C-alpha cells in the first residue's frame, strides 16, 4: 500500500480536538482507519481518505496515535518493566539465599573442625 506523502503541517492542520482527527477529510468524506504496511511503519494505524488511491482522492492522512504512543507498544514497555522488576527481585532473593548458604556451610565446617580436634 502506498502511503500518501503530505507535510507534517498539513497533517497537523487536518486534525481536530476529536481524538486528533478531522470529522471529514479534504474532499468532505469521513476518514477511515487504516493500517500501514510499509517497512518504516508496519501495522501502524492511520486515518485516510475513503477515496485514497481511487481516482482523484484527496490524500488526507493523519496518524491515529503519535509515534511511540501506540497502545501495543506501551503495553509491551509496561510488561518489560514488570519483568525487569521481577528479575531484580529474584536476583536479590538468590543473593540472600547464597549468602545464607555460605554462612551456614562455613559454620557447619567450623563446627565439624572443632569436633574433630
Automatic annotation (TrEMBL):
Specify the GRF-type domain's residue ranges.
25-67
The GO terms this record gives for MF are:
zinc ion binding
Q: Where is the composition biased (Low complexity)?
A: 1-15
Alphabetized PROSITE patterns for the sequence = ZF_GRF
Q: Give the highest taxon in the source lineage.
A: Eukaryota
Spell out the residue ranges making up region: Disordered.
1-23
* Keywords noted in UniProt: Membrane, Metal-binding, Transmembrane, Transmembrane helix, Zinc, Zinc-finger
* InterPro entries attached to this UniProt entry: Znf_GRF
Q: For this UniProt entry, which segments traverse the membrane?
A: 94-112
Which protein is depicted?
GRF-type domain-containing protein
The source organism is: Arachis hypogaea (Peanut)
Amino acid at each position: 500500500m502506498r502511503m500518501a506523502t503530505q507535510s507534517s503541517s498539513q497533517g497537523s492542520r487536518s486534525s481536530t480536538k476529536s481524538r486528533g482527527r478531522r470529522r471529514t477529510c479534504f474532499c468532505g468524506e469521513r476518514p477511515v482507519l487504516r493500517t500501514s504496511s510499509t517497512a518504516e511503519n508496519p501495522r501502524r494505524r492511520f486515518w485516510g481518505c475513503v477515496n485514497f488511491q481511487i481516482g482523484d482522492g484527496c490524500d488526507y492522512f493523519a496518524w491515529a496515535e503519535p509515534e511511540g504512543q501506540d497502545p501495543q507498544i506501551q503495553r509491551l514497555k509496561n510488561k518489560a518493566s514488570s519483568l525487569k522488576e521481577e528479575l531484580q527481585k529474584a536476583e536479590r532473593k538468590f543473593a540472600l539465599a547464597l549468602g545464607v548458604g555460605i554462612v551456614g556451610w562455613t559454620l557447619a565446617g567450623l563446627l565439624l573442625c572443632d569436633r574433630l580436634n
